[in-house]
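Example record

The entry below shows one chain as it appears in the dataset: sequence first, then structure tokens.
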Amino acid sequence: MAQQGEKLLACIHCGLCLEACPTYVITGDENDGPRGRLYLMRAVAEGRLENTSDAFRTHIDRCLGCRACEQVCPAGVEYGQLLEASREELSRAQPKSDFTDKVLRFVLKHVWLSRTRLRLFFGSARVFRDLGLPRFLLKTGLARLFSQRAHFALALLENSRTIFHTSGKSVPSASQTDGQSPPVLLFAGCVGGGLFARVNRATERVLFANGFKVSAPEDQVCCGALHAHAGDLDGARELARKNIAAFKSGEPIVTNAGGCGAMLASYGHLLANDASVAEAAAQFSSRVRDVSQQLQTVEAEAAPLNKKARSVPDTTNGRCVTYDTSCHLLYGQHAGDASQQMLSAVVGPNFVPLEGSERCCGAAGIYNMLQPEMSGRVLQEKLDHVRETKAQILATGNPGCQMQIGAGAQLAGIKLQVCHPIELIDEAYAQAGVYGDGE
């Protein structure tokens, strides 16, 4: 924390961040807001508070890391970076000894850092999901016999399912593009590739339809966001170096997950003190774009519908669609508006705005497993607003948000299907014949 001294001094204590902070709004506790947490960080950095104190751990752990405070801060405090440094401080000074944290640290170190083990992990999760076991355990109530946390975890897994059938269509190969097609590199992501491969395929199809040549480097690994959120910055740096090497060719790096995109865009900061890779890391970060941002570079959006389609289909069959902005897509990548515009291009009059769309849903990586009570309270606010829209479909640009809102809606008895905006674009293209009748 001592190395972050100058950044901590940037806070002018105005308090504008408080109402933007979901945890402060819920508890009303100054220490559960960004300003209070910055006070605690500064006290630790200056030696006035032990880094093992309960107050420091409690209020740093309660932070969602949504970075909404950065958007309203007039002093430009880099709160997200300070939070990660604080969690690293906690991890080194006083590792937790409870079962959940031990499992987390084991998984991050021995599973997430190994491509083979990670594929096995997600492969097993897919088999478990596709056999319908989470649905069975939830419907029978057997899931609750394990624990409330396990019950919600099963609901999260159940809500990683698809709601469309376009995912079965083939993905165009690079050889099908002409020599003039601008190349882009797809970042698949660990959760994205493991549980949401259909979103990656939809992304490839939509980019192809808009004239891009898409490839996905085989050597890419997890972005490192989960490690950074858990205070394991060394693990995050290890993964970052591998991704920089895998994506060294120089083309734009396209993501479809807000959390991954925000992490990839921070590699320049993460590796700034490593002279051997600092410049490459900064260049890597400058190339990261959400798929909605990439489509805007050619003013694409609904272009294939306008130029190639027989007619613009009603993809939603008359159902209302709303949109929830991923925090890290909005505050980390600054692409929330681009994603909503991409969605509106095909949904049209069926779109209904969601109040509080910019507020965190409570997923925050693995926060919903580590802080289930606070996560649930944040999620409840989101679900209340979702009910008000009367929407049957909710689109959001991050897999964690999709599972969180879907699980919350399912357990609350709300009839809601959750998907990625690119899936709706993909479905519209398919129904309109953009991909051809023979696929």
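Notes for this example: The longest helix spans residues 372-389. Residues 2-93 form a domain with the Fumarate Reductase Iron-sulfur Protein; Chain B, domain 2 fold (CATH 1.10.1060.10).
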